[in-house]
Amino acid sequence: MYQFDYHRPTSLDEAAQILSQDDEASLLAGGQTLLPTMKQRLAAPSQLVDLSGIAELKGVREDSGQIIVGAMTPHDTVANDKTVQAKIPGLAHLAGEIGDPQVRNRGTIGGSLANNDPASDYPGAVLGLGATVRTNKREIPADDFFLGLFETALDEGELIKEVAFPVPKKSAYAKFHNPASRYAIVGAFVASTEQGVRVAITGAGPCVFRVPEMEQALNSNWSADAIKDIKVAADDFNTDLHASADYRAHLVTVMAKRAVQAAG
């Protein structure tokens, strides 16, 4: 690592003030991506702003028919929260499938969303449930939040405060994971909501995306058979040593079917 100054603010305003004074400062949430990158000297922030001391960013609560998850809430907390398990079991299952116990107890939902790794799980749930990302400046609908590879709608100095998940009629997540990292080679989150069905795919391409053809079919007939013949083009899909673009395209349909079956 290169030298840096360390800060542990106790409020969002204090964290935002530090960021506003230094363009080279970086936020530290769970550190699952940033710290390894710093150790490899691929990132060299002048200041590290640790958000773990901000109490208002932690915890899960139910409010006005939504499940609100604080940005600094670890994956394990979401996975084992009784309210999440009862109201949005698909979200609890997804959180419990992230990485290993060490990752689940250190990684946070806010850090995952701000990083927007193409193979991360939470973007699938946020987009699949039509959630709203609340920051220190505004509210961003899921459909407007994810812009591309490691790119989001967050502005400079903008911090995620919490995520508001509407409670669906039913939902589920199915993932074909990398056996070592447990990242999603392809993950499918399906949800039947008051506004209709949503199908979100993560891992396959450079950014999480929806599949309108599957959503339309499932709106008419909620069953795995309704989408079994729907294929997605492999154009611009990820290709690496774990899976080709064509194989990922095949997995999109397979995982979406499994998610529908799991949702019941």
UniProtKB/TrEMBL annotation:
Keywords: FAD, Flavoprotein, Oxidoreductase. It holds the Pfam family CO_deh_flav_C. Residues 1-170 form the FAD-binding PCMH-type domain. InterPro entries: CO_DH_flav_C, CO_DH_flav_C_dom_sf, Diverse_Substr_Oxidored, FAD-bd_PCMH, FAD-bd_PCMH-like_sf, FAD-bd_PCMH_sub1, FAD-bd_PCMH_sub2, Mopterin_DH_FAD-bd. Coiled coil: none annotated. Transmembrane segments: none annotated. It comes from the Bacteria. This is Carbon monoxide dehydrogenase. The lineage of its organism: Bacteria, Pseudomonadati, Pseudomonadota, Alphaproteobacteria, Rhodospirillales.
